[in-house]
Amino acid sequence: MENRKAPTFALSIAAIVIGVALFKQIDFQAFKVEKPALSIIYLATLVFILYVLIKEGKKRKQ
User: Fold this and answer.
1) Which of 26, 56, 60, 62 has the fewest Cβ atoms within 10 Å of its own Cβ atom?
2) Whether the predicted pLDDT of 6 surpasses 90
3) pTM of the model
4) Residue 34 neighbours by CB under 8 Å, 6+ apart
């Protein structure tokens, strides 16, 4: 049980860091992003991490 908590915690921290970085890239006044290619990579990574976290959460519940 203890072995499964570490990856979830690490992925949660990574999701927060990537989410903040993505949020900083967006200019809400002009609805533009600073670096579009980097923002796409951030978004894809964030979606993947959230998918893994949700999948692990559902697996733990069962």
Assistant:
1) 62
2) no
3) 0.82
4) 25, 27
